[in-house]
Amino acid sequence: MDGLRFVAIAMVVSFHLNGYLMAKSYFYEHGPAGPDWLCRSAMVGFHGVELFFVISGFILALPFAAHRLAEAPAVNLRKYYVRRLTRLEPPYFVTIFLLIFLTVVMRQGPQPALFSHLAASLAYVHNLIYGAPSTVIGVAWSLEIEVQFYLLVPLLTLVFAIRSALWRRSLLAGAVFLTVASQSVFLQHHPRCALSILGYLQFFLIGFLLADLFLASSLRRNFYWDLIAFGGWPLLLLLLQSRLLTLWLFPWALLVLYCAAFRGRCVNHIFRNPWLTAVGGMCYSIYLIHYEVISAVARFTKPLGRGLPNPLYLLAQFALVGTPIVLICTIYFLLLEKPCMKRDWSQRLWQYSSDKFLRLRNLNGEKVLRSGLSRP
Fold this sequence. Notes:
Elements: H1 2-24, H2 37-43, H3 48-70, H4 77-106, H5 112-122, H6 126-130, H7 140-156, H8 165-186, H9 191-194, H10 201-216, H11 223-239, H12 243-263, H13 265-271, H14 274-281, H15 283-301, H16 310-340, H17 345-374
Helix pairs in contact: 1-2, 1-3, 1-14, 1-15, 1-16, 3-7, 3-10, 8-10, 10-12, 11-12, 11-13, 12-13, 15-16
């Protein structure tokens, strides 16, 4: 899954880097025929967010489905919600306060309207209130949708109580179809709904289907799935050029490609590559701050390679900017996110704080006692 996360975060980073260069670099120009093939591929990179949604659906559905279908232990809902809170919130809160600090410093003083956006972003209701992504941390729009999904997971996973695999999978597939059909009619007129789980539910449900198939499969690998993967990922970039095809076919294409990642021999080996999984494992840290790194670094790298054709120029910039992104986000990950990946870090911190407080109280009590005894 970390290998698939690498693909998702690479798409998002390429989208933002390409957008930055289109806006800020006069070396990056388009001819009369419009953007070249690599630029068009980068322009659909924002769909990498939906790849993350499928992964979230799969990862979070798996223990609930395993309990219903494979007699695994039941999921403790209290631990489930505490884990979501302790795993994701500390990096998010630190990042958002860091960005608000930098914004205040760069604008030379507090901006009153900014703090209302800050409060909405901290509560994961910015999309709902303003009908637009956060002005404090732009990537928070998708995190709000993730939080809505986390809250609904125990309810949505009741579908796995259906014992018949045919009926269960048909219900999930029908829910995907109905979700897409309703989006094609209603969401274009309701921006708040479009920036909610209602606009992306089909991708989480595809993750549910993937979990269902994963538990039922023997995972025997063969080269036919490799052929599907090697042909399917390039075709996916072509499919994403069409809004209509994206709406109706993109979720199902991801289901097939994710199955191929599990079932193919060569492609499974590729997605297990330690370099890819290392970067994919840091995707949350990269996602939180990658655009700020792009803005800080690309202003210096954009003149480099000015004489190259556009595709080569974009590739060169991706290498020049991508390296600092990985390095900076690795430090960010090690200092901030990795400690939160330990399941018991909050309990250990609470225990440490409690022990410290008790020792300090006992020490103060001893000082008071000695002071009283020393008086004549």
